[in-house]
Amino acid sequence: MPAPLPIVVGNRRMSIEDVLAVARHRHPVVLASDAAYLHRIEAGARFLERLLNANGAIYGVNTGYGDSCTTPIPAALVDELPIHLTRYHRVGLGRYLGATETLAVMVSRLNSLAQGYSGARLVLLERLARLINDEVLPQIPEEGSVGASGDLTPLAYLAAAMIGEGEVRHAGRVQPAVDALRTLGLEPFALAPKEGLALMNGTSVMTALVCLAWARADYLSRLCCRLTAMAAAALCSNREHFDPRLFAVKPHAGQNEAAAWIHADLASRSPQEPDRLQDRYSIRCAPHVIGVLRDALGWMRRDVENELNSANDNPIIDPASESLLHGGHFYGGHIAFVADAMKTAVANLADLMDRQLALLVDTRYNNGLPLHLSGAREERAAVNHGLKAIQIGASAWTAEALKLTMPASVFSRSTECHNQDKVSMGTIAARDCLRVLELTEQTAAALALGVRQALALRARMQGEAAVPSALREFLAQLEGDIAFLDEDRSLDAELRLLVAQIQHRRWVVHA
User: Fold this and answer.
1) Which of 29, 76, 207, 312 is the 20 to 30 A CA-CA neighbour of 332?
2) Would the pTM count as exceeding 0.85?
């Protein structure tokens, strides 16, 4: 198998897919090498050095941080200041980010610094790229950021790994960062006066997590269309609910896209009168629910990729005009809003799929399928309970997802002596979003199990033609993962398998 192609960082716009290529598929990174780009990177660092030598006031270089910006730092202590920044911010708690999340954070931070407006030297970018490629992954606790002044606390652990402090995961085990560096023949990195601030004072944790969330939400919306089509087929629903002529008069692009996918999946159904002229809303209005997310994904990509390709620390260094610009680009408001909106749209998918499963297991609404979709026959039917508990579990996961849709971005807290008196809460919003995605993936797994069972029962009752030919390949994949349920059995392991298939996007759906 050929080695994965490197992702170029610097002098080009990075996409969500580039982040995924590094974080999920382990593509290496390589810095842009054209002379103009390299000159811009070094020009910013040289300008800072000249300004410092001329005794110019530079926030976070020869002044204290945050509310302490009025405290001058004696020249003899300037070199120590970034080390103190990386140490006193290491107060994070909670679980450690996984390898994929950590790599996403690292490449996001590298790309921000590579914009050339942070005053970071080329040697720092090269060292960070080396750590990415050799998978020296800092142990980053997920809790402790309010999203402005950026992701200071979690990014402090990235800065610590650079200087040989803290712990990293490398070569399959957690070890002191200095030991991992020594294994690679590297000395701890010596930060220049602004480089601790450049590494830490930005939005790269929240941005990285939302890049991962975006890809999961995109896939879930496609999968939800496929599962809706399977539920509709199992319920003998009315295909006209998804007719392109119907959706042409309400021209939301994502809604039309979802309807077209479902309509196409049902195209080869055997002719039959639908059980109801109008199906219940969780079937009939599925494109309207899924379409909200499909349409939102476009502006979400725009805002996420703008943040990903921004210089988002403070102060900003303009090497062309040799200007030092103090501002607040570390504020993660756009990412916070994307995450809050995304988790609401995704939780609506959970609610939709939970309602579809509820129709499938209930003999009042499932058009002749057995109670709880049990495959047991004759006298065995009395003792078997089919998917009764699966539907309870799906409702539990859905309820938790819906509960988490309270927007995090409105819960700003005043911190740091009221210097950080309005903050984005973007990282908390991103973490909430990932949890809502996980719960919705679990609900999708439950529905996948349900439609697999329901279509097998429908085929048993009415013949193979009851399953639309467009759905048969996907149904066969589900059948390969999940055996038909004719006798009660524990289903937790099979549910975990289905969740893993969804999270790793193993099924190709509406690509």
Assistant:
1) 29
2) yes
